[in-house]
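Memo to structure team: turn this sequence into structure tokens by end of day. - J.P.
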Amino acid sequence: MKELNISSFIRIMRAGFIKHDGQEAAGVFLLEAINEQDYVKENGYYSSSLGSKKISNIVNYKSPVPDEIQQASVIPEVIDGVIKYFKEKIVTDLNPHLKEDTLGKLIKLIDIDPHISSGKREQLLCFYESGDAARFLAEVFLYVVNRPNKEDEDIDYRDAPLLLETSFECPICHKKLVETVKDKAVKRYVITHIFPTDLEPENAMEFEKAYPKPSRLDSQDNLIALDADCAESYMLAPTLDEYKRLREIKSELARSYAVKSKINSIELEDDIRVVIDALIDIQDGSKLINLEYNALRIDEKLDSKDFMLRMETQHNVVTYYRYIESIFSESDANFDLIASEIQTVSAKFEDAGMSQGQVINQLAEWIRNQRQLDADKSMACRIVVAFFIQNCEVFHK
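Reply from structure team:
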């Protein structure tokens, strides 16, 4: 622990309590300093979500303090009530033999947490030095209730396979799982158990009927990287439909990642850049000669049910096919070799059971990555894929 937050506060206090030394008991005991006040109940701030699962998620950095409790914690009457509660109940449950150790652990955390401002650090230390343990603990509690409840943001190297599997993007909300802030990689994800670890027996039976329970819940097959909010929403009250969806997402991610790992060794001729650069450099349509509609092969190749995909691909073929064809013929690019490489990679995606839309997306991304192009060049890569669909290298079967 390097950060002072509600999770680290509960962990430290729990070890010093006499009666409330269990995780749930300690969490509820502390948060009731706010939640059980008459003012809180009478003015709509009461939180009814402090069950065992919620406390477990708070302690494990998977949930924040409920909004109602945070909002109530800034009200003067509530602050006075917290100080009184700590004097009458919290301090009296501290093991007298461990009291100084408990306070010492908090002091150490206050000293080493780099996110605490110097003014706040000095204020908290003054409360400690005054000798009023109850006031010190109450002030620390009110502070941590309002701090973000997150684990140290260092990214664990053991999470790399799961992050690579998702391409560092939450498969549910598509937010970035890792962000760069001031040249530092910041963790925005939670490694989540697909088959939850704390299901009630009747729910567990339902889940197992849908998909067998893994022999090890911590195996890679049962873990997925999700955005922190998506992870919390699922873990707090997982439903059977959510479980099925996550299991299907995981299967698709694993299959896609396995194929992408295989194609990493297949290199694309650098000459393809000539075509992509030519597409990017188009300033007007005067160089474009439309392909005749009777020459189109798209309807023979693409699923008739995916209307948007067919229309996009058809537009790209009609508009750019002749132009790309002329670029290849006027350059020294080895068309046959490029076509062979595209066909090989496409076949691997197709054989993995991907949908046609997924094949097109993955091929365009592979071309972009092979040539180390920026994300804004993705459309040019999709146009190239459409060319090779028409030319029979993609969906050639």
